[in-house]
């Protein structure tokens, strides 16, 4: 504490989501005095309103799909009843359990956690009014500050979420009633996951995406196959069209699309992306540069103001929850002056994997084939369908494929793309390969256990050089 009565820390962290709390723990491991200011609950949107509750619900959808397909394995199921409200209740229990564990983790590491909304009053000072008090604002000073305030869901103009007939993923994860019919606006990861979830639980679903393909950032072959699989599941996939208007009609909605067609649904889920949480924290007053509400950072996550860093969704280098965690560790190590692993402190956004948990699942890392070709590379492709994989055939999960994109000159892996059952558990192998700078030949030399889905990765690598054994 200084002469003005302000507590002084080596590192202040504004925001306790995945990036913020991981940075705090790593900084404490390195001996820094750390305070974390979080307005709601440590864990952020990922734990409380996103990754964890949604994946809990999606696992229930997977179980439902498996039960309905059990007959092919000689298992007769006479009646299946799904209680969506109970599934939501379980997701809340999972969140509480993980939140309790995270709170204990912060205590064990000695992180000072302050429940409050913080704002900058100077580049090294954050003022806050504790959530449990209203009498006096207090201040903290830090030699370094990390901004990790994350993002929030956004809605398009003229589409006001009311939490009932029009809602976002935040409300969707807590409402216990399943709409009989629902339109999902946005064909990105969140929209695709909810479309699959609702369809698996028996709702009539239409998925609307303004781009000409679902998951616009994914490899086009992946996007096209996902759309075909969704249609087989009964999901009405509409791409290349946007929502023109949404009007309430009794207990439902009349939706008009830009192609002139009109539909009636009980509910509309808006999943058109997120916007950075930069409002009201005093950035302009201290000169922190922003671009479209995101904090401008360099490759080391430095802002335009010395001593102020930013990580995760609040920045121009958003990198999903796991990417934000890596950024948090990198910044904590830099602030602590850690001499080792210096190259790792620059987080390559191309090396951050994306995972989408609908079924079939989708996962990718690096560049798409189109991006690599546009960059002028001489490209080599390895592509193998799951129908050539013994484990996939045995488990009747043959939809999908593995695809790897390489530079023909160097054999360097530039991108890997997966669609199929549980491929989110496989993408980590490609993450290791890309992080380690492996060539496709080096990856091919790794021995995968048989019979496993992971064998398809080695087969795709071998396909690049024309050496695949089980597929030509």
Describe how the helices and strands are arranged.
Blueprint (H helix, E strand, L loop, with lengths): L6 E8 L3 H12 L4 E5 L5 H6 L1 H18 L15 H25 L3 E11 L2 E6 L7 E10 L3 E3 L12 E3 H4 L8 E5 L3 H12 L3 E6 L10 H13 L3 E4 L3 E7 L2 E6 L4 E4 L1 E4 L3 E3 L6 H4 L3 E2 L2 E2 L12 E3 L9 H16 L18 E3 L4 E6 L2 H6 L4 E7 L4 H5 L6 E7 L5 E8 L6 H9 L4 H5 L10 H10 L8
Parallel strand pairs: 1-2, 1-5, 2-3, 5-18, 7-14, 8-9, 8-14, 9-10
Antiparallel strand pairs: 3-4, 4-5, 6-15, 11-12, 12-13, 16-17, 19-20, 20-23, 21-22, 22-23
Number of helices: 14
Rg over C-alpha atoms, rounded to the nearest angstrom: 24 Å
CATH architecture of the largest domain: 3-Layer(bba) Sandwich
| Regions with little confidence, pLDDT below 50 for 5+ residues | none
As a percent range, the share of strand residues is 25-35%
Helix/strand-derived category reads: alpha/beta
Strand segment count: 23
Q: Rough shape? A: globular
Give the mean pLDDT: 94
- Helical coverage, percent range: 25-40%
What is the CA-CA span between the terminal residues?
A: 69 Å
CATH class bucket of the largest domain: Alpha Beta
The figure for the number of domains is: 3
Strand order of the largest sheet: 1-2-3-4-5
CATH T-level fold name of the largest domain: FAD/NAD(P)-binding domain
Q: CATH superfamily of the largest domain, called what?
A: FAD/NAD(P)-binding domain
Largest sheet features: 5 strands, mixed, barrel
């Amino acid at each position: 504490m200084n002469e003005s009565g302000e507590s002084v820390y080596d590192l202040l962290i504004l925001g306790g989501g995945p990036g913020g709390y991981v940075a705090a723990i790593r900084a404490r491991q390195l001996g820094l005095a750390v305070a974390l200011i979080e307005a709601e609950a440590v864990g952020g949107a990922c734990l409380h309103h996103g990754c964890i509750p949604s994946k809990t619900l999606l696992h229930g959808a997977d179980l439902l799909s498996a039960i309905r397909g059990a007959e092919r394995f000689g298992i007769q199921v006479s009646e299946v009843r799904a209680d969506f409200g109970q599934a939501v209740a379980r997701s809340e229990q999972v969140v509480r359990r993980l939140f309790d564990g995270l709170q204990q983790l912060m205590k064990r590491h000695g992180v000072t956690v302050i429940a409050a909304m913080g704002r900058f009053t100077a580049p090294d000072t954050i003022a806050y009014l504790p959530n449990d008090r209203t009498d006096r604002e207090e201040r903290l000073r830090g030699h370094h500050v990390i901004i990790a305030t994350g993002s929030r869901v956004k809605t398009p103009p003229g589409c006001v979420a009311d939490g009932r007939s029009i809602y976002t993923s935040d409300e969707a994860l807590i409402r216990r009633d399943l709409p009989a019919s629902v339109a999902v606006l946005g064909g990105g990861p969140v929209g695709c996951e909810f479309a699959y979830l609702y369809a698996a639980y028996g709702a009539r679903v239409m998925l609307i995406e303004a781009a000409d393909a679902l998951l616009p950032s994914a490899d086009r072959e992946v996007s096209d196959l996902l759309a075909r699989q969704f249609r087989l599941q009964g999901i009405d996939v509409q791409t290349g069209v946007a929502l023109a208007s949404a009007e309430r009609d009794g207990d439902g909605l009349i939706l008009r699309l830009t192609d002139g067609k009109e539909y009636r649904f009980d509910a509309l889920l808006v999943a058109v992306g997120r916007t950075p949480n930069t409002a009201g924290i005093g950035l302009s007053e201290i000169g922190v540069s922003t671009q479209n509400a995101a904090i401008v950072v360099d490759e080391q996550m430095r802002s335009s103001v010395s001593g102020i860093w930013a990580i995760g969704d609040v920045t121009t280098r958003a990198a999903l929850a796991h990417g934000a965690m890596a950024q948090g560790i990198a910044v904590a190590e830099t602030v602590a002056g850690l001499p080792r692993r210096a190259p790792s402190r620059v987080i390559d956004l191309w090396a951050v994997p994306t995972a989408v948990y609908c079924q079939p699942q989708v996962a990718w890392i690096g560049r798409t084939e189109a991006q690599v070709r546009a960059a002028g590379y001489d490209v080599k492709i390895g592509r193998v369908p799951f129908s050539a994989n013994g484990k996939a055939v045995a488990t009747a999960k043959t939809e999908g494929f593995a695809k790897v994109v390489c530079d023909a000159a160097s054999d360097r892996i530039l991108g890997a793309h997966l669609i199929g059952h549980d491929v989110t558990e496989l993408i980590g192998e490609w993450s290791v390969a890309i992080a380690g700078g492996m060539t496709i030949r080096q990856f091919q030399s790794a021995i995968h256990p048989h019979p496993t889905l992971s064998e398809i990765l080695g087969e795709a690598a071998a396909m690049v050089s024309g050496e695949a054994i089980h597929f030509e």
